[in-house]
Amino acid sequence: MYKTDIPTTFPKDFLWGGATAANQVEGGWNLDGKGLTTAEVVQKATDRLHFRRTPVTADSIAVAVADKTDTLYPKRRGIDFYHHYQEDIALFAEMGFKAFRLSISWARIFPKGDDAEPNEAGLRFYDAVFAECRRHGIEPVVTISHFETPLGLTLKQNGWASRATIEAFLRYTAVLFNRYKGIVKYWLTFNEINAIQNGTTGTGAVDADLPLAEKAQLRFQALHHQFVASARAVQQAHAIDPAAKVGCMLARMQTYPKTADPEDVRAAQFADQLNLFYTDVQARGEYPEYMNRFFSENRVQLVLAPDDEEILRQGTVDFISFSYYMSMVASPALNVTQFQEGFALGEKNPYLPASAWGWQIDPVGLRISLNEMWDRYRLPLFVVENGLGAEDEVTTDGKIHDDYRIDYLRGHIAQMKEAIRDGVQLMGYTTWGPIDLISASTSEMSKRYGFIYVDQDDDGNGTLARLRKDSFYWYQQVIQSNGENLA
């Protein structure tokens, strides 16, 4: 539609805030009837800079279940948000948060994943969290499944590899939608749904010992079950609470061609298609044609129930959310047409700097992604993760000077504003994570993202005291000015 009034600022109702996950902040892993999740049986990385971890196998799970401590499993302790939520939400409110993205631990509500009745103690915890958000005028944005499949479902039916997990998920979502009708408006079904390429993290299924071809078959079948579950949950939410909005969530991997060679351009195009395939299904309601060849060449044969395609068509999402941390470069040498484990497989871009963990920093790539996704889907977009992991130092007088984090976020916010001027409809921005938390990839504390420092080291030692970093006050003024003051 032709318009002469080009937007120059963030919308007045823009959802500024931050994002966390239950398995990285909550702790309380063995309290009030909570069951174990797949996140809580993954050992911390032995080489944190290269993400080397012990593979999840039947044997490693047995060892983890027998271990009643959090020494090797830091996600069991998190940062004890379970007991500090009032203090933490008050700090978010002090920054001026309009929204707080958090996840609900499925195993806190259904300890085994498919229990006959929900755990009331678990629900009461989230009742209290949402009440605290409401008291401070903060809109909760809730992820229903954030890398924490109940371990009971893994042991019983290999997680999402089984179609039976769909019904267990829908029993869980029905409880959430009914309990929090009128309290939670924004829901996300699965966090970074393309994490199925990382195996157990995304699928809740054990497949570490399988050949690559069998892994591909299992993971894409598990993904199909998640697609169906998500679509049915969208319909379920709309029926229970017509005011609810349900979105999908993707780990966005913006990919550029290595050179102007047409072969490189095609490699980048297909890498981009493989990344956006997930939102193609959830936003358009059907599998895109380009995946037919990919499935065929990788010997993936999906098993669909007779009504699955209609369910996907009827259960498209209301908005699209995504994480954005970096961009990549592609060439035919990457063999993007062949199934590979992981979803950050590109080459380094010589024009971009990188963090200490090798993640390349590309604010303009966020603007490019926003424009591409808006053009492709014409649905409201929501950047629900973006941030810089770094090793912060506390000065002798208790200060944390993190100008590097401010520089990173300033660049990305400036590019979001440019995308809005380009015509992109952007709902909000929740940084990852507003308070230091346990790393998703390595289960360490040293890789810190927050505006709020948490006094805890990689071994769990510390007072858990919360300290405001320089970025805390900077983000406070960003929100107060609705993105106008980035100095």
TrEMBL record:
Gene Ontology molecular-function annotations: beta-glucosidase activity
Superkingdom field: Bacteria
Family note: Belongs to the glycosyl hydrolase 1 family.
Keywords noted in UniProt: Glycosidase, Hydrolase
Protein name: 6-phospho-beta-glucosidase
Organism: Schleiferilactobacillus harbinensis DSM 16991
GO-annotated biological processes: carbohydrate catabolic process
Gene Ontology cellular component list: cytosol
Active-site annotation: 385 (nucleophile)
PROSITE patterns: GLYCOSYL_HYDROL_F1_1, GLYCOSYL_HYDROL_F1_2
